[in-house]
Amino acid sequence: MTGKQVRLGRLFRADGRSVVIALDHAQFKGAIDGLTPMSAIVRASFDGGADAVILNPGAARDCAAEIAGRGSLIVRLTGASTDHNPRFDYHRRISTVVQAVALGADAVIAMGFIGGEGEAASLELLAEIAMECAELGMPLIAEMLPADFEHFQDPAWIGLAARAAYELGADVVKGYTTGSDADADAIRRCGVPFLAAGGAKTADPVEIAEQALRHGAAGIAFGRNVFAAPDPCHMVEELVMAVHRSIPS
User: Is residue 247 included in any domain, yes or no?
Assistant: First the structure.
């Protein structure tokens, strides 16, 4: 487990927390505002003090100069689906753990869905990737989502998804939170560090982060709340302050 320990030690600071900026949206949404050029938003993320960025393989390849010596790279291993696909939970492998190692990754991330037609396939793939990660000493972040939109903010579904990821071998879970006290139970029972996702910009990102920390999250993995902000670097600075310098009550 030495490789995982070394890489997780770069992803999480000494306080056990991490600020991750998710910049992998263009694979399914296209060249949306804030993600063109990729080098600019990666640079702004690290200028603001982010600990890591999530990138698809092509962007990771082309943004090496903006990443090297500045923070951790998390490479996405699943995708192969766009917004035009009617199956929300249709995700397949787009990269390998070996390729992520070659790109310099400190972790990889893969999707897992519950409650939809794609559940079994996504969880099976997640387990396969977990076994590959164990062999190569690479931490696996499982991004877990309810496939049923009516349960997207259901703490029972969120908790089940998070625990399923742990049982399949994930080292870290990324998932949504509800902002309620029910989050604390789901995060505590998860079994591994939990990174709160930001989702659509419907509330103050700093408030979302602080609520997640109070409920036990080990940090955040925000995307749209950062790259769609008027000043992404300043937004990252505020999130870093919230995660690393505030003490949840």
Answer: no
